[in-house]
Here is the input.
Amino acid sequence: MEQEQQKQKIKLSQKFEKFHDKNYKLLLLIPLTILIFSFIYLGVFYSQNQDFIHKDISLTGGTSVTINEKINVVELKEALSNKLESINTREIYDIVTREQIATIIETKTDEKQTKQILEEYLDYELNGENSSFEFTGSTLGESFYQQLLIAILFAFVFMAIVVFIIFRTFVPSIAVIISAFADILMTLIVVNLLGIQMSSAGIIAFLMLIGYSVDTDILLTTRILKRNQGSVNERIFQAFKTGTTMTLTSLLAIIFALIIVSSFSNVLSQIFTILAIGLGFDLLNTWVTNVSILKWYVKKKKDKSK
Amino acid sequence: MKIKLTWKIWILVIVLALSLVSIFITPNFLQKGVLITSVDTNSTAFEQGIRQGQIITEIDGQEIETIRDFSKILQNKFPSNENIKTIIKTTETEYILYSNTAPEITASEIPTTNINLGLDLAGGSRALVQAEGQQLTSDQVNDLVSITNNRFNVYGISDMNVRPVSDLAGNNFMLIEIAGATPEDLEKLISEQGKFEAKIGDEVVFVGGEKDITSVVRSGQGSGIYSCEQSQQGYYCNFRFTIYLSESAAEKHANMTASLEVNSTSNGNYLSKPLDLYLDDNLVNTLQISEGLKGRVTTQIQISGSGTGETKNDAITNAEEEMKQLQTVLITGSLPFKLEIVKLDTISPTLGSEFVKAIFLAGLAALVAIAIVVFFRYKKFKSSIALLITSISEIIIILGVASLIKWDIDLPSIAGILAAIGTGIDSQIIVLDEAKQSKFLSIKQRMKRAFSIILGAYFTALAALLPLYWAVAGLFKGFAVTTIIGITVGVLITRPAFTDMVKKIEG
Here is the structure.
């Protein structure tokens, strides 16, 4: 019985190997299509919004108020929508009891006015005990946004340089960089499609994504280029087993954590959401995009040396 | 069963032990009492020598064990406005105070760990300040910082941190952080230029600051609220205090009053023009100058003003605040620029503990998730446990280092710890897989190969993090710091130890 199963397994993997050998270049069309769609979508998005993302008030400037009370947000929003500029509300629940313990109100109006308007509506004083205020001036928010973009750009360039230093060959290094870039771009598109308003913490998540996505690519490339036992396919398959374990572990850990913090911390849940989306795309871009380019490169090199 | 540990595992064990020491052995280990977090510098308590950081063990002979004991005793102690004796015993000595209100001391439980939570978790205020309409040079910011520090001290806030920061775009800011409870008037205190001018007609007689004003009497007779009256809107209370002018300012005052005429009113004889007090170009009070002062060189001048409120108590509080602010400005003088608060966060401490609970649970859930995947994938109990132990020790070591370098754990820092643990687990999975593969290589060679991949990943992560250290006025520094600690600890200590563990387990 067991031998039978083993045989079937081997048969299946042989079939897949054949399929992959024949079609690996064609497989590149999948990420390529998504990439092209992403570029077009981003272009349209940019022309409509004059920006690459929907920014929240930590980047546009404005006030975020957390009131440690149960407040009917629907009524509040209705009553204040023409007093507080682009008002947004959220509720925070206790993780265990699921009881509403706080209310978050976000607006582009400045801190002083917001406080005054809210106090008038709630009919009690907001102080350091019952509320938190976070205010960012609009010029500063804009400047922070620019700097975070620069930080991402620098991080990406540094990463690319390190990758080149590690592998010292053009095509494999570029393959790693393309995969990382595709991860970021595709994630960005999904974030925009979901209508997520990105905070400064969300941009940090993209920074983390660079690190995570490159991890598996480096593993793959090292196994294929710097090892010599086993066929290329065997090496890819071994790297695949290790790499997917890595990504799936992270993905599952992030999803578990996301479920817990989602009702609680906007900052952390945004970081986790972006990482989860990004790691999902990383599976595609490492095991389709990067593998195919690398396989192509190795095969070509082999043909030449013959 | 006897287990022989390799030196790499020993290093991990030792570092782990040291980290636990660094986290849990606090200066006040096992001490009972409450910790003083701030003392109003204008209070009798401060004058008697009570300072931030001391530990109160007894008040009036009653033992203090929790913060509840502390506030209960003090709250019930001052029912009326009489002066009462309070005996405060700290770990070192005993203080005896006489006052009519509760001593202006805030306290908290003695922390059981050395981990300091950042403002966004523990509560407190943070402000980024720039000059209105102009870029400050770093020298100008340094000046600003020292004046502001002085102002806070004079005002009575001691538990704060004021420092210059700059960012990637070349902006210079003054960053102010105040832990714990926030003074209501923080915004006024930091953003007001505090340009004080006393004028007769259009001419300035003297201004705030030590050049014109040699001292300001802030306690005792002749300083305080002297009367409260009911008005149509509520109440208003009047305060007064004495200031001493420098010789030159006093002479100027004499010269200017000498040329004024004397008007007779029903209340007495006053000079034809009053002394107008301006704060940031707003008239705050007008003082009639009595006939006797005409042309006289006098260094002693009484300043007065008032505060209003709906109730008498409100009016008293407001008048006290107004007086304190005016005194602060008179002592410290004007700031060289008009300021603008570009970012102001005041975080209530209430949600902080909930937050920590949430993060703790999330971390636990993540670990469970990791355990599930690793166990199902490798079906090896020992190796999976080793992986979990390694990850947990990484968290402990990061927190240990953070306690050691006194790094405040804020939200970005926690995100950074997550990032470090994430890459850590990735690397451990690589080690586990390399150990399984290519059986014809010696285990040592296999481990070496795992390491070359891990080092590659390490340097890319390091490179990616560096820009964050400078961006955004350092508000996300915590992310870079904890991640860098984490991945460095990973490469130098935990990963080598894990590799040895795997070698032992896999044989």
Summary: The longest strand of chain A covers residues 100-107. The beta strands of chain A are 54-55, 62-67, 88-93, 100-107, 131-136, 197-198. The radius of gyration of chain A is 24 Å.
